[in-house]
Specification:
The complex is a heterodimer of chains A (about 270) and B (about 400).
Chain A: H1 3-13, H2 17-20, E1 23-28, E2 37-47, E3 50-54, E4 61-67, E5 75-76, E6 87-91, E7 97-110, H3 112-121, H4 125-134, E8 141-153, E9 170-174, E10 186-192, E11 195-196, E12 201-206, E13 209-217, E14 223-226, E15 232-243, E16 252-263
Parallel strand pairs in A: 8-16
Antiparallel strand pairs in A: 1-2, 2-3, 2-6, 4-5, 4-7, 7-8, 9-10, 10-11, 10-14, 12-13, 12-15, 15-16
Chain B: H1 2-9, H2 14-38, E1 55-63, E2 66-77, E3 88-95, E4 100-101, H3 105-111, E5 114-115, E6 125-131, E7 137-143, E8 152-159, E9 171-180, E10 190-199, E11 202-207, H4 226-248, H5 253-265, E12 278-281, H6 298-304, H7 309-317, H8 355-396
Antiparallel strand pairs in B: 1-2, 2-9, 3-6, 3-10, 4-5, 6-7, 8-9, 10-11, 10-12
Helix pairs in contact in B: 1-4, 2-5, 4-5, 6-7
Classes of the chains: A mainly beta (about 270), B alpha+beta (about 400).
Chain lengths: ~270, ~400
């Protein structure tokens, strides 16, 4: 049994899977597509960097595009509703390109113990504190979650588009172009509504070793760094929450953000 | 996407958009079915312009230390010469350098591999053939091939090797070439091929992998270079997906029903966005879709991976059980293709025409329009007279 198969089995057996299985990321068919390639792009949901491809749901998509350059206009990722892959896009393979998705996730209700476990696993202990202050610690938590994801496509040359700020509600912005950076580290910023977000837990997983996660908290300037020593496909993810509005039927609005990319082997 | 958003956001304009979507669907379906019924690569609609430009088959396979290339045109040939061959140029293009991948199972099954950089597809070598009107060779040019004096050729009318009931007992104009390995760079393992017909430099028909451009949803590829195929497919895919998504997203049952019709006949599928070329590699066993052997039952093989239009037609038009090999045995040696079938008179063309009916309908519509205008005119005129009369009577009283 391969490591990934073992992870999949583990994920299936985890009791809180149903409750928290909304890790979300973009998984292109290739992280290094060639010139003129029509690249299938999957929208993945799962846990521990193991998941299932979601059929496209046009009604939930707010943004699904390829940014081929820092100032170049984005190209829509086209697709057929109800079918996987989530979309297909034409790439030129000349310079690093950025895929981005933002969309509605859904609503979920979690019993207190599962909600608490989920908050702790994603560094959202302050929500737990606020729950207690509101006297909600023993109530079922009602959550409306939103999805934001980015993926970088490696190309022949780097491009500053890797660090392009797109205005996602929760957005991971790398420093430089990590698809061309062979140094054993990664640094970047996490933005909440376009502003630096302090205290957000960043989690990084390597596709070939997803159980050994790396973690880092963002500082007051929203900056974080992670020791990504190995080459391969990496997933960075973060979750942030806010209290749902007074007219909302939910208690919390959560935003899930991810970044996937192929890191070159360290030199 | 824009169509979808508009449909959702503006309920009042929904009906108009829905009618537009239905109209577009009908146009696409009619276009598709026209391509299907007229066609090819046994069936492309180019036979409207001239059946001698209509490519029927491309085969490529090794035989010992040689590579065999067979390029056929003119489907359902039963008549004796002369044909209308001299105006056309028949070309086979071979790309020896664009990288290929052999790890994607879906692409391996459908296309024999993956063209990793479709934008870079280009001919490294080209064979240009001109034929006399009796199907004999007029001229042949080899571009960027070595040892061309060792290339063995055969140009003639022979049995159509395509295993398909409609083409049993008929011939094709065939071009057979046995090319020594030394014609290509030493150690060349991978080949990307496609064939074209052209007149005065204008490309008319294209063939890459068998049973691709003859499918109704791919007809637009026939006049494009392979490097242009993926952008063109993406453009078409975007338009058709928008149409499908819009129709599928409406609450009316008939909209969903049309969406299903679009899905199976018009929509480009996720595995369709590949350039239409033939891939052959020595790394894998020969046989469709890794090159193509004469004995390959490509209709059944293509059906096994998602495209069953011709498989169904072969059941509709053929006997049961479905025949899985050609109606005439192939030769084991050059030129491999079976001898031609005797010439015979082609089936009589239909004598009935729709033109008189169309003219009659047009005249009837004109007359009805004229009569309607006259009735309205008469009505307004008498209404005006009545009102005027009523006014004067009222004024007089």
């Amino acid at each position: 049994m391969t490591l990934r198969a073992a992870v999949l089995v583990l994920a299936l057996l985890l009791p809180i899977r149903c409750a928290t299985a909304h890790d979300f990321w973009i998984e292109p068919a290739s992280y290094r597509p060639g010139a003129g390639f029509a690249l299938p792009v999957n929208l993945m949901v799962g846990e521990l960097f193991t998941g299932d491809a979601l059929p496209r749901d046009d009604s939930s998509i707010r943004l699904f595009a390829l940014y081929p350059g820092l100032t170049a206009p984005p190209r829509a990722v086209i697709g057929t509703d109800g079918i996987t892959p989530g979309g297909t896009v034409l790439v030129d393979g000349a310079r690093t390109a950025l895929l981005a998705f933002s969309g509605a996730g859904g609503v979920t209700e979690l019993p207190p113990d599962r909600f608490t476990a989920y908050l702790r696993s994603h560094g959202l202990e302050w929500v737990e504190v606020e729950q207690k202050a509101r006297g909600e610690e023993s109530e079922t938590a009602r959550e409306h979650f939103h999805r934001h994801a980015k993926a970088l496509l490696t190309a022949a040359a780097p491009d500053a588009v890797a660090g392009r700020v797109l205005g996602q509600t929760l957005e991971i912005v790398p420093d430089g172009d990590p698809t061309q950076d062979a140094s054993p580290s990664f640094s970047g910023r996490i933005l909440w509504r376009g502003e630096p977000l302090a205290g957000c837990l960043m989690i990084a997983r390597l596709y070939s070793d997803p159980l050994n996660a790396l973690q880092s908290r963002s500082d007051a300037a929203g900056r974080f760094s992670l020791p990504l020593a190995q080459g391969g496909v990496w997933l960075l993810q973060a979750v942030w929450m806010e209290r749902a509005g007074w007219f909302s039927g939910q208690d919390w609005e959560s935003h899930w953000s991810s970044l996937t990319f192929l890191k070159p082997e360290p030199r | 996407m824009g169509l979808l958003r508009a449909g959702r956001g503006a309920a009042k304009s929904g009906s108009a958009r829905c009618y537009l979507a239905v109209a577009v669907t009908i146009v696409l379906l009619l276009g598709g079915w026209t391509g299907g019924t007229l066609a090819s690569d046994h069936a492309d609609p180019v036979n409207l312009k001239g059946p001698e430009t209509n490519i029927t088959d491309l085969f490529f396979f090794p035989d010992g230390d040689r590579l065999i290339l067979i390029f056929n045109v003119r489907r359902a040939l039963t008549s004796p010469p002369p044909y209308d061959l001299s105006p056309y140029s028949y070309e086979i293009h071979i790309d020896l350098t664009t990288p290929l991948g052999f790890t994607n199972a879906s692409d391996l099954a459908r296309y024999g591999g993956t063209v990793l950089e479709p934008a870079k597809l280009h001919p490294d070598a080209t064979i240009r053939i001109r034929l006399n009107d009796d199907a004999s060779l007029k001229s042949i040019d080899y571009d960027s091939l070595a040892d061309t004096d060792q290339i063995r050729t055969h140009f003639a009318v022979r049995d159509d090797p395509f295993n398909f009931p409609r083409f049993y007992g008929v011939n094709a104009i065939t071009m057979v070439m046995s090319i020594p390995r030394t014609a290509f760079p030493a150690g060349q393992q991978d080949f990307i091929l496609w064939g074209t017909t052209a007149r005065k430099g204008e490309q008319i028909d294209h063939v890459g992998r068998s049973i691709r451009t003859q499918l109704p949803r791919f007809g637009f590829l026939n006049t494009l270079q392979p490097s242009e195929h993926v952008p063109a497919l993406m453009k078409q895919s975007a338009m058709r997906s928008d149409l499908y998504n819009f129709l599928k997203g409406n609450s009316e049952w008939w909209s969903a029903a049309i969406a299903e019709l679009v899905e199976s006949n018009v929509l480009l599928r996720s595995y369709d966005i590949q350039p239409d070329v033939m891939i052959y590699t020595d790394r894998r066993p020969v046989g469709y879709p890794n090159g193509r052997l004469l004995r390959d039952d490509v209709v059944a093989q293509t059906c096994a991976f998602g495209d069953c239009l011709l498989q169904e037609i072969s059941f509709i038009e053929g006997a049961f059980p479905r025949q899985t090999s050609n109606d005439k045995p192939f030769l084991s040696e050059f030129p491999y293709l079976a001898e031609a079938w005797p010439t015979k008179a082609p089936p009589a063309a239909p004598s009935r025409s729709l033109t008189p009916y169309l003219i009659g309908i047009a005249v009837l519509l004109i007359l009805l329009s004229w009569a309607l205008v006259q009735v309205i005119r008469w009505g307004w005129h008498h209404l005006w007279l009545w009102l005027r009369h009523a006014y004067f009577r009222w004024a007089a009283s």
